[in-house]
Amino acid sequence: MGIPALAMPGFPRLRDAYDVVILGGGHAGLAAALKTGLLGYTALLIDRGPKYSRSYYAPKMDNIPGFPGGISGHKLLDLQIAALREVESSVTYVTPATATGLTRLSSGEYEAAFGWLKRSHTARGRAAVLALGVVDRMPVIGGKIDPIFPWANFGIVDFCVLCDGHTLPDRSVGVLGNDAYAVRTAIDLLHFRPKSVEILTLGRPLLEGSPDDERSELLRQLAERGVTHVDAEVAGFDEIRERRFGVKFADGSRRVYDKGFSALGWYDQHRDLPRSLGCRIDSEGYVVTDEDCRAIADPDGGPIPGLYCIGDLRNGWNQIPEAWATAERAIIHAYGYYL
Length: 339
Ligand SMILES: Cc1cc2nc3c(=O)[nH]c(=O)nc-3n(C[C@H](O)[C@H](O)[C@H](O)COP(=O)(O)OP(=O)(O)OC[C@H]3O[C@@H](n4cnc5c(N)ncnc54)[C@H](O)[C@@H]3O)c2cc1C
Hints:
This protein is of the alpha/beta class. The chain has two domains: about 15-135 and about 270-335, FAD/NAD(P)-binding domain; about 140-260, FAD/NAD(P)-binding domain (3-Layer(bba) Sandwich). The chain has eight helices and 18 strands. Strands 1, 2, 3, 4, 5, 6, 17 and 18 form an eight-stranded mixed β-sheet that branches. It has a five-stranded parallel β-sheet with strand order 8-15-9-10-11. The protein has a three-stranded antiparallel β-sheet with strand order 12-13-14, with no helix packed on it. Strand 1 (about 15-25), helix 1 (about 25-40) and strand 2 (about 45) form a beta-alpha-beta unit. Helix 1 (about 25-40) packs parallel to helix 2 and helix 1 (about 25-40) runs parallel beside helix 8 (about 320-335). The longest helix is centred in the last third of the chain and has 18 residues, at about 320-335. Bound molecules: flavin-adenine dinucleotide. Flavin-adenine dinucleotide binds next to helix 1, strand 4 and helix 8.
């Protein structure tokens, strides 16, 4: 597509049109941009910044091939950004930039709208990739979400069963949450043979709002598996120096666990933009795609031409190898059909 544009963070020169526009530059979007460049096509990658990636605060990830001993999410993002230099003549990477809209034009192209350097911009792509990820809900303690951050940054409080369950054998675990998702997570964690699991409901009734039959079945499972719960309001955390999850309750009592686990679900699943394009959203809030990561239209069920969804935003397993695999599938499909 003509003369390539400058590519790396800083002040890249924007073009009106690219082969692919990619919204979101976490692990999935960065991989999609790299693949597009390697295949000899141009991409615009629009990202708010690495610190908005889910993994940015993951101190040690053990399932990333090539990194025995683990790697932090922060470091892995840096490495993926560095890899874009190999294709910098083809990929325009704008960050911090916020995607505000994506429209399918009558020509079949997509027009991305985004804010960057305090101005509004648009750019077209022959194909478009949604890679906006999802955002974890944090426990609100005294009206703030930051009290948990130090424990998360040290890997004392985890967020993902599939990522961190293997760190739990013989440890006592305090699970934050009160709904059916939190209860199911607590039960799932038992697979990893922790010393004990206790649910901390943050002052809310356990299984509040669950239908009666689901509630009684989950309560039965908790009792059978020895999972206890504490319903008092949480006032704060301590014992970070001891690398433990100390929990202070509003009634003055306190408890200490080897690890914490946040099972509060998502704060934001970035559904508005896919909805505006007519994407189907599943019952858990994820964008439905086919095996090539083509976004499926709601209600007709067919793929939306030229539109892909990859990484955590699509229905699948929220893991980095899957973010990469979905990026590969989407861009290779676009290469075959739209580029
Ligand atoms: C604490 C923790 C530990 C984890 N540990 C592991 C692990 O050990 N192994 C593993 O495989 N996975 C792990 N994960 C999961 C992993 O982080 C995600 O699967 C992965 O980040 C998904 O990649 P993604 O690109 O889909 O989303 P993200 O990496 O979250 O990236 C989404 C990107 O979209 C951007 N964005 C959002 N909205 C906009 C907008 N409007 N405009 C522009 N940009 C936007 C953000 O800036 C962000 O960069 C962990 C997650 C957490 C929270």
